[in-house]
């Protein structure tokens, strides 16, 4: 019986060394097995959430990049307006065309700044939802903003002629505006307001990126902690198991030798009576 038990222990130790697991099933240790499984399952769930957080960061960075580009275009457009203030009627025709082109491109850029189908800078109805865990309250909602030119500046369309019409009632463009600079100052004031709005939207998104990054770092560390805890409950100590195997094999060999000696002694006794 002792030799058979030693053989079973040798087989168990070999299995631990080959699999690296001290607890491979509930049969080995029900308490540790289910505790380890619970920790591993939790780690797996949070890993999937971690991927969602990472994608959320990318989505916000795409939107921030779009807003930075929008701001640059607005600054260029303001420069065109400043030039138009002191330009001749003929020069204003060309400047109005430049302004109109920039406004059109600004709106197109806002429409192009999407990530995986979500655009946070061309519609107020857009929404980014990032869930951190299975808890319903562990969610971040980021609403979209409309940074297209017409929405920011307050005109119904983004054309230079339309702007002139809105300010003066004329339809022939900037060349028909009088020499007074006050009309251009009115538009420049709206442009300044638009730049402020875009910067504010960018700051809001940047704050959310920082929040998501903090949550991502926490989730990564937490997942590693959960895995480490599960490993402590189920993984085998290979050094210890290796030493156990050597000890068990030695014990097994000694047991076999003892049986051999006992058999030889029995044969000697039988020869004496033979």
From TrEMBL:
Pfam family, one: Flagellin_C
The UniProt record lists the keyword Transport: no
Compartments it resides in: Secreted; Bacterial flagellum
UniProt keyword Secreted, yes or no: yes
Domain Flagellin C-terminal: 188-273
Residues covered by the Flagellin N-terminal domain: 2-124
Swiss-Prot/TrEMBL keywords: Bacterial flagellum, Secreted
PANTHER family associated with the record: FLAGELLIN
Function noted in UniProt: Flagellin is the subunit protein which polymerizes to form the filaments of bacterial flagella.
Protein name: Flagellin
Organism field: Magnetospirillum moscoviense
Top-level taxonomy: Bacteria, Pseudomonadati, Pseudomonadota, Alphaproteobacteria, Rhodospirillales
